[in-house]
Design brief:
By secondary structure, this protein is of the alpha+beta class. Helices cover 24% and strands 21% of the residues. The chain contains three helices and four strands. Strands 2-1-3-4 form a four-stranded antiparallel sheet, covered by helices on one side. About 10% of the residues have low confidence.
Length: 110
């Protein structure tokens, strides 16, 4: 509930952040995220590396562009959003199970 959201916000996690690693281990699924957070259970804190997508003054995603200024595309021909990488630290048990079982949205989702 609200307490979970307060802890996430205090740790630096925001809506639509993409979690890239937990304690240096890559995560690309909810199962991998859950496993890595579980491994941190006995530690004082753990590190999350987040990707936060950049937005312009209108709130639109900023797309990565090639040397000619054309939007870069991924292997599925979707535009690639630009992002910044951030490190945040959380204490085990403070982010709650919602993070472990929740929907991790694609940045183009509205």
């Amino acid at each position: 509930g609200v307490d979970f959201l307060r802890h996430m916000f205090a740790a630096g996690v925001r809506q639509f952040d993409v979690i890239a690693t937990v304690n240096g281990e890559p995560v690309n699924s909810v199962a991998a995220l859950r496993a890595e957070i579980g491994r941190a259970a006995g530690k004082e804190s753990y590190e999350l590396v987040l990707r936060r997508h950049r937005r312009d003054e209108n709130g639109e995603l900023v797309l990565r562009r090639d040397a000619q200024g054309k939007p870069m595309l991924d292997e599925r021909q979707n535009p690639i959003a630009d992002y910044e990488t951030m490190r945040v630290y959380a204490k085990p048990g403070t982010l709650g199970v919602n993070l472990e079982t929740g929907y991790l949205p694609h940045p183009m989702d509205e």
